[in-house]
Every structure is written in C-alpha cells, then in structure tokens.
Amino acid sequence: MQITRQADYALRAMLYLAREYPKKDERAATSKIAEEQEIPASFLAKIISQLSIAGLIQTSRGAKGGVRLARKPEEISLLDVVEAIDGPISLNECVDDPSVCSFGDNCPIHDVWCEAKAQLVRKLRDATFDKLLEKENAKV
Amino acid sequence: MQITRQADYALRAMLYLAREYPKKDERAATSKIAEEQEIPASFLAKIISQLSIAGLIQTSRGAKGGVRLARKPEEISLLDVVEAIDGPISLNECVDDPSVCSFGDNCPIHDVWCEAKAQLVRKLRDATFDKLLEKENAKV
DNA sequence: GTATTTTCTATCTTTATGGTAGAAAATATA
DNA sequence: TATATTTTCTACCATAAAGATAGAAAATAC
Fold first, then answer.
1. What is the pLDDT of residues A37-65, one digit of tens each?
2. Can you give the pTM of this predicted structure?
3. In the structure, how far is the CA atom of residue A19 from the C1' atom of nucleotide C8, in angstroms?
4. Mean of all residue pLDDT scores within chain B
5. Which has fewest Cβ within 10 Å: A126, B21, B70, B113?
6. What percent of chain A shows pLDDT beyond 70?
7. Which residues, listed in sequence order, are joined to residue B59 by a DSSP beta bridge?
8. Alpha-carbon gap, residue B6 to A123, rounded angstroms
9. Which fold has domain A5-139?
C-alpha cells in the first residue's frame, strides 16, 4: 500500500515551488524543477498538467513562462497534492463506496478502515507546506 | 492508495475462521468460506495458500480436511493479514528503504510519511480478531 | 514574422492485479 | 488395499494501470 511514484514526484515538485514562492514574479521552468528534485524530466510534464487542472499551480507557456504555486504554502497540504494525483485515500474500497460490499454496517472491519482513513487524512491535511519549510530550515 | 482485493478477501476469510474458532476440532472448507463471505471460490485458493505460508492458518487436505486459524483470534491482527498478502505498509517508498531517495534526512516530507505509517500500523495492530468479534456481537 | 522556450497530449512498454481451470495430494470408506 | 471423494495447490491468461517518452501545440521575446 503506497502512493504512486507520480504522487511522490508531485510532492517534490510542490516542495520546490514552495521554496521559490517568495520570489513573487518569477516562474520556475519544469526542466529546472526536474533537475533539482531528481524527477524524470519528460515524466514531470504530465504531473505538472494534473496539478494545474487541480488548481494547485499556475502555468504559463512561452519564453519567461513556467510554473508557480496557485496559492500560499500555508494553504496547501500534502493531502491536496496526493489526492490531486492518486485520487482519494480510501485504504479500502468499502470506505468511500459502501455499496460495493453487501455486508455493509454489519462488518466490524469496515469501521476500522474508516477510522484509519480519518486518522491518516487528518495527518496529511495538517502537513502544510509552510510547516514543511520551517522544519527544513530548522534542520540546517 | 488502497489495499488489494486479495487483502480484503483475506480479511473476510480470517473473520469467518475467527467465528468458527471455538469449534476446536472442525475445519472449514474453502468452498464454504467462499460462499459465505462472497469471495470468488477459485481465487480464494491462492489467498489461502499465502495465509498458510505466512503461518496465520493451518490447512489439511483430503476428506474432513480444511482450514482453521493457526493461533487464537486475540493473537492475530488486521496488520498481520494485510502484510501477509500485500507486503509491508510503507505508504511511500522512502519509508521502508531510505536509500532510494538521495535527499534522505534533509527531506521534511519523509518525516511525515514515517509518522503516518507508524500511526496506521498501530491502529491495525490494535485491531485483533477477538475485538472485531466482540464488536460484531454488540451490534446484533 | 520568426525563432525560442515552454507546456501539453497521444502513444508505447512494462508490470501488477484479478481471475480461472486443471493437477496433485490426502483421507475416508468399502 | 483400492477407489472415490474432497481438498489444497500451482501454472496460466486476460485485463488494466503505472511508468515513461517523444513529438505537437502554444505563447512570448526580439
């Protein structure tokens, strides 16, 4: 049970953009992000596109174009990014769609998955990019 | 991010066997488990085999053969079953194998995944089958 | 208007999942 | 002991998703 490589790459890219966020008027080139964050350059294009559709970043083409965060780092969490790429974190099919399982509310396992999901989601929602940058700076 | 169907089926099968556990000398037939728990019968064979290798159940062939838990319900948790089928719950590659990521300890995201994993593992380890049966009985 | 820099999208390969059917093994019973 | 029965076990296949790439499309600077 893991997030996809795409989601991991997306997180790296977003972390990079969060660092660059103070430089208000600049946009980062995809190629630059790929190099710095060790992401296959041609693979990052697809990920950038998805993040853009999800409204997490703004993109612009052409010379001087590039990518930047669509909103402040404190308004973006790990959950936002992971769900934008991998879809909802359900842990088990029945959590997000109880109709797939005929046992429904009688199943004691169902409850555990629901609690586990809630707990995980809380953790990831709490991890906003401003907090991550703070931690990073504290380490150095 | 979900467990596989196999893992879900394995949980259902184990829940059934936990209910049957008091009948000390009987063994449940795979076909019976499949029918009761709504699992594709021929698919369950593969899952039973994996659970047996993992030491969670005892199997015996032939007439009067079948399957039963290898130890008490209170000594088996959801974590045991899920990991036996799907492998370790790592949430992200870097959690169980930090060498795959060159950023290592400098990465603030890594820490979040480690905490999230620990939290999830704790939850699943705490959910033993005797507790699940208790809950089930309380509902009826 | 053209060249350059960038995002975007259609396509391919590989891997894993979900599922099946038939072989092999073991026991009860005649 | 032979045979029929009941079961586990294993090799196989089809489908879908993931990972990755190269070339098309778009926008801007000059």
1. 888 887 888 899 899 988 899 888 877 78
2. 0.90
3. 25
4. 90
5. A126
6. 99
7. B67
8. 27
9. Arc Repressor Mutant, subunit A (1.10.10)
Which residue in the block uniquely carries the two structure tokens 């930047």?
A: A68
- A2-16, A31-45, A112-126 — which is least confidently predicted? A31-45
Q: Please check whether strand D approaches the CB of A40 to within 7 Å.
A: yes
CA distance B102 to A131: 22
pLDDT in tens, B6-44: 999 999 999 999 999 988 778 888 888 988 888 888 888
Closest listed residue to residue B128, CA positions, set B81, B88, B58, B75: B75
Tell me chain A's radius of gyration from C-alpha atoms.
18
**Nearest residue of chain A to residue B136 (CA atoms):** A108
Q: Distance between CA atoms of B57 and B49, rounded to whole angstroms?
A: 9
Closest alpha carbon to B3 in A79, A77, A95, A121: A95
Beta strands in chain B (DSSP E): 57-60, 66-69
Distances (CA, A) of A39 to A111, A135, B113: 38, 23, 19
Q: How far is the CA of B61 from the C1' of D8 (A)?
A: 6
Segment B113-133, tens digit of pLDDT: 999 999 999 999 999 999 999
Query: Strand D closer than 7 Å to the CB of B69?
Result: no
Q: A110, exposed or middle or buried, with CB in 10 Å at 0-12, 13-18, 19+? A: middle
